[in-house]
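Take a specimen:
=====
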Amino acid sequence: MTPSTLPGAHSSSTLPARLTRRFLGTGSVLVLLAAWAVLTMVTDTISTSRFPSPLQFWQSTKQIVTVGYADGTLVGHALHSTRLVVLGFAVAAGIGVPLGLLMGWSRRAEALINPAFLVIRPVPPLAWIPLAILWLGLGDAAKIMVIFFAAFVPAVINTLSGIRAIEPPIIEAARMLGTGRWRFLSEVLLPAAAPMIFTGLRLALQAAWTTLVAAELVGALAGLGRVLNMAQQDIYPAMVMVGMAAVGVLGWATTRLLAEVERRAMPWLAH
């Protein structure tokens, strides 16, 4: 047995590479922070009336965390926005993935459903905002509807692509072995299409966060979109940056959570 085939040899050999990547990532962030501070606080190359300094950003963050802004604290706004994203994403995944599986497996289902889907697919998610307001008012339901349409399309497309990408010999072998319908679905179709399905879910989650801010800009009583809207009206660039940073952090956190679900769902792809 060679050293490269010993148990754990692969993980130990990749450890320096992972540490190097983390070091480079941390270094790039520190360089950007240093450049931000120098350009706004030392050289005044960038006017702080248009782009906040790190100190102003910190002061605004402290304000919204402790005192609050736009009728709420940062935690309250973040929880409200996360709730909308999770609900919209969950409904989109719960409908989009089974629909993609059905269309990918059954040509008759595709012929029945695909024409309507092709009409919905090119419509930008933000174009649903006026209709959502007319149907559901200015409450959270309208925002969840808009987020749903943003996440629904990539969930369907990638699931359909995952089913169509399965090699025909795999399907033929399962049929020759007399695999039952539900066992075929759970042990053949889903595992084979899982990588593409999770790719679609990641895209859907990103689309949900992107659409959230636009949805919350109209008539929102809470949420990070309201923070951004109020900060823009108040000409408060530092608070705008705080809202943007909060969206970025929450988007990163939920994406990491989905990646962990993917890792547990597909342990055979773990490195």
Summary: Confidence is low (pLDDT under 50) at residues 1-13.
